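To illustrate the input format used throughout this study, we show a single complete record. The first block contains the structure-token representation of the backbone; no residue identities are included at this stage. The design step must infer an amino acid for every position from geometry alone.
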């Protein structure tokens, strides 16, 4: 349902510069509201439409013939364009003369071609704590999963790790949130048309959004809370701000963290090492504050049981997180190239910065994509080397 937890932990640690200490799989309550409103859609103006309307508004031109002569256009072409403008509610005929409608006047003022106002029904999502609307990305049904109450109950009862923790809210849906939509200037960000008027709720249902919540600490050891959803690999700033501002959420996270018995995390680390067939290794706390084990090269696949992708990353253990490292530079290079091979495509535009950041994270002295391409070629990964060379030359 969500992507691997370590991707969220990696972002928190290496992209946000924080020290992650716990990760929780959470079901966030969301109001799914069926909204009825009068809406006006908008689109960019066609060039001829813009100037014909300006001719009527500013030039006082009131017929197809006058517009045709003024703009030196064929009369049939102007006639067709005027018919289109009439069909979308921009031009009317009054006393035999062309005139702009109120919709067209608003369009000219805003330089957006508004299309005839109509009644619209759509589902909208609001968080169940403050009734803030969700951004556009959450309306992609092919990417985002909202769970009904029954499915949420099944997810919290499931035994496979991670087990979801269902949050509850005592706040009802705030009807003023609908009226707030009318005045928003960032409507597109919230999946709204250009104009929303007289919105009303036809019904509300509480559904649940699966997310990861990472508890981390900043350089001053102050707690931070980052929320990761299905729409992107990076933390959602709006959901992170929401969860970090709600005592009912931060209090739950802190109580779960404090509930870990002394020595329990050490035991989970020892159990994980034993499961991977690693013995004689102890975790140490890094300068940044997280616990880390340094494993020998033989611990990693194919000879060992630990995936190469764990190097420079984290293992979530339920009681906390564990960083994994290896001093063998050859093993780190192999892990580096395998991650790049899974990430890089010819169409990606962020390869350069990402590759350099990953190299720094794995302790490799590689400062350019060209150097990484040469490393891939020496390792016999010709296809990857070629793709990287294209990025280096672009």
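Output of the design step:
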């Amino acid at each position: 349902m969500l992507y691997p937890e370590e991707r969220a932990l990696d972002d928190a640690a290496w992209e946000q510069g924080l020290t992650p200490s716990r990760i929780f799989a959470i079901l966030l309550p969301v109001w799914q509201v069926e909204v009825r409103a009068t809406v006006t859609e908008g689109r960019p103006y066609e060039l001829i439409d813009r100037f014909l309307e300006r001719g009527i508004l500013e030039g006082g031109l009131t017929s197809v013939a006058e517009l045709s002569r003024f703009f030196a256009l064929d009369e049939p072409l102007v006639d067709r364009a005027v018919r289109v403008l009439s069909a979308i509610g921009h031009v009317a005929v009054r006393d035999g003369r062309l005139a702009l409608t109120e919709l067209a006047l608003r369009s000219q003022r805003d330089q957006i071609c508004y299309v005839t106002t109509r009644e619209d029904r759509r589902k909208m999502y609001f968080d169940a704590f403050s009734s803030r609307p969700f951004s556009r990305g959450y309306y992609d049904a092919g990417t985002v999963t909202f769970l009904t109450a029954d499915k949420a109950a099944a997810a919290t009862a499931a035994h496979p790790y991670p087990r979801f923790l269902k949050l509850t809210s005592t706040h009802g849906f705030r009807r003023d949130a609908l009226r707030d939509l009318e005045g928003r200037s960032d409507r597109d960000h919230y999946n709204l048309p250009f104009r929303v008027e007289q919105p009303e709720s036809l019904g509300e249902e509480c559904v649940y959004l699966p997310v990861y919540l990472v508890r981390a600490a900043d350089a001053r050891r102050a707690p931070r809370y980052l929320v990761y959803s299905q729409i992107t690999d990076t933390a959602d700033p709006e959901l992170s701000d929401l969860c970090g501002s709600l005592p009912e959420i931060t209090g739950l996270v802190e109580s779960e963290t404090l509930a870990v018995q002394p020595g329990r995390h050490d035991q989970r680390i020892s159990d994980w090492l034993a499961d991977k067939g690693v013995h004689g290794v102890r975790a140490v706390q890094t300068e940044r504050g997280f616990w880390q084990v340094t494993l020998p090269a033989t611990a990693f696949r194919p000879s060992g049981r630990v995936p190469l992708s764990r190097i420079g990353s984290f293992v979530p253990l339920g009681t906390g997180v564990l960083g994994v490292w290896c001093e063998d530079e050859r093993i780190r290079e192999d892990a580096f190239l395998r991650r790049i091979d899974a990430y890089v495509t010819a169409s990606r535009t962020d390869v350069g910065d990402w590759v350099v950041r990953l190299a720094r994270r794995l302790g490799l002295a590689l400062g350019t994509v060209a150097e990484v391409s040469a490393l891939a070629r020496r390792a016999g990964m010709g296809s990857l080397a070629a793709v990287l060379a294209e990025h280096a030359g672009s």
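Structural context for interpreting the output: The longest strand covers residues 195-217. The chain has four domains: 5-38+119-258, 42-114, 264-325, 329-393.
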